[in-house]
Amino acid sequence: xxxxxxxxxxxxxxxxxxxxxxxxxxxxxxxxxxxxxxxxxxxxxxxxxxxxxxxxxxxxxxxxxxxxxxxxxxxxxxxxxxxxxxxxxxxxxxxxxxxxxxxxxxxxxxxxxxxxxxxxxxxxxxxxxxxxxxxxxxxxxxxxxxxxxxxxxxxxxxxxxxxxxxxxxxxxxxxxxxxxxxxxxxxxxxxxxxxxxxxxxxxxxxxxxxxxxxxxxxxxxxxxxxxxxxxxxxxxxxxxxxxxxxxxxxxxxxxxxxxxxxxxxxxxxxxxxxxxxxxxxxxxxxxxxxxxxxxxxxxxxxxxxxxxxxxxxxxxxxxxxxxxxxxxxxxxxxxxxxxxxxxxxxxxxxxxxxxxxxxxxxxxxxxxxxxxxxxxxxxxxxxxxxxxxxxxxxxxxxxxxxxxxxxxxxxxxxxxxxxxxxxxxxxxxxxxxxxxxxxxxxxxxxxxxxxx
Length: 452
Fold this sequence. Notes:
Mean pLDDT: 77
Helix content: 40-55%
Strand order of the largest sheet: 5-4-3-6-7
Order of helices and strands: HHEEHHHEEEHEHEHHHHHHHH
Strand content: 5-15%
Largest sheet: 5 strands, mixed
Radius of gyration: 30 Å
Shape: elongated
Number of helices: 15
Low-confidence stretches: 117-156, 447-452
C-alpha cells in the first residue's frame, strides 16, 4: 500500500502538478495563490504542533537531532499525533481547507496561537500569503521571505517561482503588444490607481483602460505604469493603444484629472467625454460642512434622477437641457451658502450630462467610472498590507494578473433595438461625419466668372 504523503508534501505535489497540465496561465496563477496559502498555513500549524509536543513529526523520546545532539525526554510533552481533520480558513484567495493535526494522550489542551480554538479567519498569515505572491511575481527570493517568517519548510521551490515569473512576463508582454484593430468600442473607461513601487518614493500610478464593444461585450484594453498622471503620461498611453489599431470610442468615461482629459481630447478627438458623477460628488461634498453634507448629497443626486419624467424619457439634447436646468436650480439654492461647492459643480458642467445622449439602459453604468474602481479595489486589497511592492515589474505584473482574471467575470451591456439605433446614429454623427465638398468639386459651388 502506498504511504500517504504528509499534508505539506501533498500540497507541494499539487503545486508542481499545476505546470504539467497545459492549463491557462491566469487560472494557474490563481491556483498557485490558493495552494500557496494552504502551504503556508499548513506549515505554520504543523510547526505549532512541533513546538507544543517538543518534537518533530515521527520523532520520539531521546531522538537524535540533525546536528547530532539528543533531545531529552524531559523536554517533550506527553501525547502524540493522531491523524488530521479538515478545517476551513477564509483568505483573500477564497476559503481553503487545511488538514489540522489531531492530538491524543496530552496532559493539557492544545490551543493554536495563530488561529485560536476555532479556525475561521487569520489576518497575520493572510498577509504572508499576499506578500509571498507579490514577491514571487517580482522574481524575489520567495524561499527567504517565507523562511524568515515560518521556517525553511514553508517556502515554494525555486523552480516553481521561476516558472511562474517567466510565464507571467511572457504573457504580459504579448498582451501589451497585441493588435487592437478588431476591437471596436462604444464606451472606453479610463482610470489610474496608485501603488508604492520604488523605495523611498511616493505612490505612482498604473494607467488602465477598459471598454464595452459595439456588441455589448466587456474588454480589458490596456495597462501601463507611469511616473504621474500628467498629460504626457496619458498621451503616451493612449497613443500606444491607437498605434496598435484602437479606434476612438463613442464615449470616454473618466474622472476629472486634467492630464487625462487633455490627452483624451488630443488622441481621441472625435469621442464624447463623460465626467464621473461619483468623483464630482466627492469634489462638491468636500467643500460642504459636515452638518449639511447629507442634504447636499441628496440634492446633488436628485439632479440626475429621471423618475419624474416617467416612461416618456428619450435620450438626446432635450434630456441634456432638462438636467442642465436642474443644475442651475441646485446652484441657485446652494450658491449663497457654499459658493465653492457650486463653482466646482458648474466647472465643466456639460461633461456631466453627456451620458444622457446614450441608451437609457446604459445610463447607470456609463455616468461614472466605478466600473474600473471596483476592479482596482481587488488589486489594492491584495497589496495594501505589503506597504511597498518590490519594483515596477512586480507591480504591473500583479495588477495585470489580478485584472486579467477579474475581466473574465465582467458583465456586458444590454443591447436593445432602440439602443442599437441610438448608438448607430451617434456613430455616424461622431465617427463617420459626411465629407464636406470642396467648392472646386461641385459645379454648383464654383465661382461665377463674367464673360469677356
